[in-house]
Structures are given as C-alpha cells and as structure tokens.
Amino acid sequence: MSETHRPAAVPAEDEPDLLRDQFRQLLRYRKLIGAGIGIGLLGGVYLGISTADTYVATADVVLRTPTDDPFNPSIAADKTVNIGSERQTALSSSVAAEAAKKLGVPASGLPALRGGLQVTNPPQSMVLRFTYTASTPKTAATRANAMTEAYLKLRQSTLQDTRDTMVKGYKEQRDPMAKQLDDLVKQIAAMPAGPARDTAYTTKTDLQNKVNTFNSSIAKLEALDMTPGRVTTTATPPTDGDGPGLPMSLALGAAVGLALGLLGAWVRLVFDPAPRSDGDVSRALRAPVLGTLPRDRTGGGPLLAAGEADPRLAEEYRSVAFRLAYDSRFADRRRLLVVAPRGSSETAAAVAVNLAASFAETGKDVLLIEADLRTPVLASQLPTDSGGRPRWSQMPGGTGGRGAGPTEAEWPDGRQLVVDAGESGTFDLIPGDRVRNVPRALTSPRATRLISEADSPGSTVVVLAPPVLSYADALALVDRVDGVLVVCDPRAVHRTDLARIRELISGAGGTVLGAVLHAPPPGEKRTARRPGRRTPAAEPAAEPAALPEPAEEHPVGDGSDTVALRTVRTGRR
C-alpha cells in the first residue's frame, strides 16, 4: 500500500509569510482603518484652514558683555552671560510692556502680545532668535522688531543701572578717605620736622593709595562699553504663510489617520476572540483546513452544487473529498461525521451532501445518513427517488434489531432514498426524522449497523449531525464514525470553541480530520456567538427527550457520569 498523506501537523510559517498574513488580517477591519483616515483628513483640513492666515517673522540678536577692551580675547561673553536667564528675560512681561508702549498696544492686549512671541537659542551660540507669529505679514515683522528693540533697551538699562550702583558705592567709600587725606595734608604742612611728621607722611601715603584704588575702579566702570548686543537679522514681512498649506495638511492628516487606523485595527485584532487566519483554526483543532468555500456562495441556493452552474464551489468540494481520500485516518474506515460548531447546520448539510456526491463521482457506494433528528431537511431539499430496501435492513435483526421495537427506537425506519447528483452519479440517503427519544435512536443497534455499511468494500458513509456545541448528538456517534469534519465560519466562532470541540471529540474517541471554512450565509451577521447560546434555527420543536447541555458543561474525559457519556458508552461496539 502506498504511503498516504497525514496532514496533522501545521507547518511552520516563514517570517515574511507571517507578516503578509498579519497584514491581510489587519485589512479585515476596513471600517476602523477608514475611520482613522477620515479623522486624520478632518484634522488635516482644520490644520490647513487654521494656519492659512498665520505668518511668522524672525529677528536675531547677538549678545555681548560690557567690557573696557572689546578686542581682548581673554574676555569670553559666554562665560559672563547666562543665556538661559536672558531668554527668560526676553519673554518677560517687562519686555512686552516696553514693546507695547512703542506699538501703542493697550494694557489689555499685553497677554496677546506676549502669546505670539517665541524666543530660542541656537546651539553653541550667543544668539537669541525672536520669532513672532501674527495674522498679517506686516504685524509679524513689526512686533518682532519691537520686541527685539525692547529687549535690548531693557538689557542696556539694566547694565547701566548695575554700573551706576557700583560707581556710587565706590564713591561713597572713597569720599571719606579723600576728605581725611586733605585734612592730613593740612596737618603735615603745619607740623615741625620730627618723628611725628614722618608718621603722618606714612599715613598719608596709605590713604593716597586707597583713594587711587577707588578712583581706578570708578574710572574703569565709567569706561565700560555698555552695548547690550546687536541685531544681526532684522525681521521682514514674510511672503508666505507659516502653515504647510491645505494639500500638505491633507497628506499629513491622511498619513496620521492611516497610522491611527492601523493601530486601532491591530488592537482590535489582538483582542479578537475569533480565529484570525486559517492557521489559527488549524492550531485550535490540531487539524488542517481542508478547504474554504467561495464567498457568498455558501447559502441561499440548492444544497447540491452543480458543476456547470457554480464550478468554483463544485471544485472546492472535490478538492476536500480528494484530500480526505488520501488521509489514511479516513481511508482506513471510510466514515465521516460532518458537524457545525453551533447555530445553524445549513452549510454543514451542504458540505455533507456535496462530499457524498464527490465520493460517488470516484466510484464509491456512498450512503449519506442524516442524523439530525431535530430539524431534518435533506429529504425535502434534494432531488430524490425511492430506492429499494437498503442492505442494512436485510441483515439479521435489520428491521428492528434484537430486542428493538418501535417504541424503543423509531429511527432508522428502513426508508432509503436515492439522490440524483447529476454528472457525479447517485448516492443513497437515509433521511432524518423527528423521534421521541433522540439519544436512544442514535445509539440503537440499527443505527450502529447502518453506520457499519462503510465496512463493505468500496463503500463510504457520510453522517450529518447537529451542531456539536449545541447538542451531544454528535458525541454519541463519534465512537462509531471516528473521523469528524468541522464546518464553520471563522468569524462566527471563538478559538476557545474550536479547542473545546477538539477536546470533546478526542475524549469521545474520535479524531478531527480537518475543517471546511465558509462565509456567513446571506442575512446572517458575521459575529461570534457566545458559548451556551443557540440561534432560533437550532432550537428543536418540543423535544422532551433531547439531550441536555452536559456536553458543554462536562467535557468528555473529565470522569463525570453525564447523560452524554452514558449514551456514548452504550453505543460503543
């Protein structure tokens, strides 16, 4: 026997593939991205309009320190001037008040006058750059120059006041000594020669030296060049507005909005409980994705896909059937259980029917069993003809089994239909029927013998069951069917739901062969349902014997003796 394909492990993806996959996942949230771009464009329009009538004028001032020798290289201005303090002085209200006097701005407009000024210091320089923003070019240039002049005037006044204070202090110390010196000179002139006169001369010399020192300090201060600085660049009216312009603002807004939209989509992607890709589905089920049905072609039409009417859909079903045929886990027993996670089984029914047709096309004797005894629909939606008695009914006890009577199990009742699949051929259908006790019917000896038809050479049995998370019916069949195919909309189921399905099926003795993904049927919202809720379509009619929900509350394998587990043990061969 040739080696068969076992697609159980999910191959590792390369980093470029992961990046492309993540980018495709982000594009699923087009509304968030579009909203971000819209907000960015609105911000760009506001920026373009608000800065359209804004003009900026700039003036530069080079600061210098007072010195009596401006050509002395040992005197460095950056060591005697604190540029940070000077910048704060330029922004002070004193400078603004001085400029307001020249501009004729009232006191009430002083805050607005200060608000338009910005003073900066280019690195590694003694330059203060006065930048003024106004609504007109002329106003911006006029106010920038006025603020510059007011700052230089205030700085010069401050330096002069400092010098005058120091000169006054020196003079106050010198004048008493000078008077004392004059008095001493008069006394020496009247004194006779002798030691007393010599002592007086010594005192005179000391006083004269002190007076000369003060005179030297005063002369040096009075000789200082008190120029506070010079204007190197005079502000001129700007020709263009300060804003980037409407086109540039829109481009910037679109770029920022796109970044915000992608960020919002990424946050939404991180916290999205639904599978984000086929790889997520594979990892949750630990089984490959066998196929993805074409969008908008999975509901609303006939269950049996016609090759000429919808070739893409028909080929996708054939592809899934061939992948199953080359999986040794299915090829060894040729039994397949098709289930949906929760909600409606409409798409799962379509997958089961078309897989049966695809297997029949390969020459297999296919038996499709509708084990959905709560909402059976296949007999009314498929082109069927009454066939002969199926082989299972002719086996010993086939009409009811040992000890089985009509009151014990009402299904299967021996009815067999032949489905015409067109060019694919025909296959047999055991239609479902509403029964009084679903668990007993599914685990009856007749149902077991019916599923064992796959043991015949060239035979294949496909079983359609209700959603596995809504009812425990599928778990009651898993031990006899083994291979399970999960049919789901990846945007309508949580990753935790898929992991739970795998745990339930594995605990019941079965194997998940793979998954078939589809888009939501027409009219159904693309939202993941919360666990424990059923759609109205999945609610059976008054069914007193329906299995309760213990399959969800007590997963198979936890040791609890629930109704679902008792049913599985009873039906195990």
UniProtKB/TrEMBL annotation:
SUPFAM superfamilies: P-loop containing nucleoside triphosphate hydrolases (SSF52540)
UniProt keyword annotation of Magnesium present: no
PANTHER family, alphabetized: CAPSULAR EXOPOLYSACCHARIDE FAMILY, TYROSINE-PROTEIN KINASE
Biased composition regions of type Low complexity, renumbered to the chain: 534-549
Keywords carried by this UniProt record: Membrane, Transmembrane, Transmembrane helix
UniProt name for this protein: Lipopolysaccharide biosynthesis protein
Membrane-spanning parts: 32-49
Keyword Transmembrane helix in annotation: yes
Disordered: annotated segments: 380-408, 519-573
